[in-house]
């Protein structure tokens, strides 16, 4: 169980507001996080990853404290073993497709599996600048998986993919999550993203 | 023609650039982070040589390096180092004088990298150091080359500060720009022309190389 009970002051289009979240996410499951634009969905993912520090509250992952404002404790980002698929992809312009994955794992067999999963075997030596938007998005997903994270945080990670590819990729990903026991939180505006197998958490204003 | 001043100029520019690369990149990285009052003050100080008359900087460095005053006295007594009228003094002064040429472009390049780049690396378990070496530095390579070349070219053309700190000692502090001044003073326009032409050619070649490199380099993927 991921227990989140935090308050973070965030800047919205209305001005400064408190993002208050108190919820639990099931382990080994996919949860879709939905809600209106600007409500703080990305901020919530970044708080869970340790990239943003909330003012108040605590986060527990499977009983282990990841963050506790009262005790002034925050587990290092590097030690949380999360994978993060950024909305802007955040690909490294200096690294080829294969180098992106090798940055996360030295296991060449796993790298090949990921490339196959994302249908990117023929783009191993391509730099991000040489890829289409959809290919870049797939690479961002594969890179996040390269470290075999216990928790995968996905921020609008299928928006650049066509319907057919999206469906195929989601099926393959679900199989991988099952094997690796990955817990997944997906921020999305699209109803078709992991629609059959996921729980929904709606973040309200 | 005496090539010693040209050799001294090149040696000074090379040493200054090498030292500034080592000092400047970490300082630029630190400055590109979250803004604080200390960083703003330091950045203003680093930028000062761009607008300050070289004679003003040279005068204060001369006072600071003097073996009769605090810092210079300490250097002389503890390290047996005399910076006034010495090549070491020129290097020290050049580092201060060329600081903005190294730090400003590199700091600007670091600031323009999206913050998610480093964040992505951290979530992959990489440390700040690994992220710096494998992700951040390679993606500002073009700016580092530009900064290094500008620093080199700027040091090559130094005059005011060099004259104040080093004077005109042949083989020690008489760099090419001083040799030109010296030759003109003694009406030896032929020698002045030779030195000036060589400096012009070297500087032009360097600046041209930067333009060619920047044209060939991969365009900034973040723009």
TrEMBL record, chain A:
Signal peptide positions on this chain: none
Keywords assigned by UniProt, alphabetized: ATP-binding, Nucleotide-binding, Transport
GO terms, molecular function: ATP binding; ATP hydrolysis activity
Limits of the ABC transporter domain: 1-205
Pfam families for this protein: ABC_tran
Record keyword Cell cycle present: no
SUPFAM superfamilies with a match to the protein in the record: P-loop containing nucleoside triphosphate hydrolases
InterPro entries: AAA+_ATPase, ABC_SmlMolc_Importer, ABC_transporter-like_ATP-bd, ABC_transporter-like_CS, P-loop_NTPase
Name of the featured protein: Molybdate transport system ATP-binding protein
Lineage: Bacteria, Pseudomonadati, Bacteroidota, Sphingobacteriia, Sphingobacteriales
UniProtKB/TrEMBL annotation, chain B:
Membrane topology designation: Multi-pass membrane protein
Molecular functions (GO terms): molybdate ion transmembrane transporter activity
CDD domains: TM_PBP2
Coiled-coil positions: none
Domain of life: Bacteria
SUPFAM superfamilies: MetI-like
Swiss-Prot/TrEMBL keywords: Cell membrane, Membrane, Molybdenum, Transmembrane, Transmembrane helix, Transport
Location(s) in or outside the cell: Cell membrane
One CC-aspect GO term: plasma membrane
One Pfam family named in its UniProt record: BPD_transp_1
Segments forming domain ABC transmembrane type-1: 6-210
PROSITE patterns: ABC_TM1
Transmembrane segments: 12-32, 44-63, 83-103, 132-153, 159-183, 195-213
UniProt function note: Part of the binding-protein-dependent transport system for molybdenum; probably responsible for the translocation of the substrate across the membrane.
Family: Belongs to the binding-protein-dependent transport system permease family. CysTW subfamily.
PANTHER family: MOLYBDENUM TRANSPORT SYSTEM PERMEASE, MOLYBDENUM TRANSPORT SYSTEM PERMEASE PROTEIN MODB
Name of the protein in question: Molybdenum transport system permease
Species for this entry: Pedobacter psychrotolerans
Highest classification ranks of the organism: Bacteria, Pseudomonadati, Bacteroidota, Sphingobacteriia, Sphingobacteriales
Gene of this entry: modB
């Amino acid at each position: 169980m991921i227990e989140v009970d935090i308050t973070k002051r965030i800047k919205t289009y209305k001005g400064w507001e408190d993002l208050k979240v108190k919820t639990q996410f099931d382990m080994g499951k996919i949860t879709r996080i939905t809600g209106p634009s600007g409500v703080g969905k990305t901020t919530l993912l970044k708080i869970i990853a340790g990239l943003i520090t909330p003012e108040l509250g605590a986060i527990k992952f499977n009983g282990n404290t990841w963050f506790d404002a009262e005790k002034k404790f925050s587990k290092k980002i590097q030690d949380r073993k999360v994978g993060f698929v950024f909305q802007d992809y955040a690909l490294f312009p200096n690294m080829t497709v294969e180098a992106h994955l090798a940055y996360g794992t030295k296991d060449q067999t796993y790298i090949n599996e990921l490339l196959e999963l994302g249908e990117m075997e023929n783009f191993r030596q391509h730099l991000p600048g040489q890829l289409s938007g959809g290919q870049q998005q797939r690479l961002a997903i594969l890179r996040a998986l390269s470290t075999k994270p216990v928790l995968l945080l996905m921020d609008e990670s299928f928006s650049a993919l066509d319907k057919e590819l999206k469906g195929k990729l989601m099926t393959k990903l679900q199989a991988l999550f099952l094997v690796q026991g990955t817990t997944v939180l997906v921020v999305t505006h699209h109803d078709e993203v992991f629609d059959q197998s996921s729980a929904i958490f709606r973040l309200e204003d | 023609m005496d090539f010693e001043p040209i050799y001294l100029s090149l040696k000074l520019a090379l040493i200054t650039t090498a030292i500034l690369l080592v000092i400047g990149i970490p300082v630029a990285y630190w400055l590109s982070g979250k803004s604080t009052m200390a960083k703003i003050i330091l950045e203003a100080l680093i930028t000062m040589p761009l607008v300050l008359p070289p004679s003003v900087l040279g005068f204060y460095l001369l006072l600071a390096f003097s073996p009769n005053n605090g810092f210079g006295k300490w250097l002389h007594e503890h390290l047996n180092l005399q910076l006034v009228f010495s090549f070491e003094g020129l290097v020290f002064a050049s580092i201060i004088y060329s600081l903005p040429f190294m730090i400003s472009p590199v700091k600007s390049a670091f600031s323009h990298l999206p913050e998610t780049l480093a964040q992505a690396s951290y979530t992959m378990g990489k440390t700040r150091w690994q992220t710096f070496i494998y992700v951040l530095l390679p993606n500002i390579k073009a700016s580092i080359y530009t900064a290094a070349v500008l620093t080199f070219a700027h040091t090559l053309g130094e005059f005011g500060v060099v004259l104040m700190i080093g004077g005109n000692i042949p083989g020690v502090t008489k760099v090419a720009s001083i040799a030109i001044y010296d030759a003109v003073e003694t009406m030896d326009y032929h020698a002045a022309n030779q030195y000036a032409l060589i400096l012009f050619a070297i500087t032009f070649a360097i600046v041209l190389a930067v333009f060619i490199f920047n044209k060939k380099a991969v365009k900034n993927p973040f723009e």
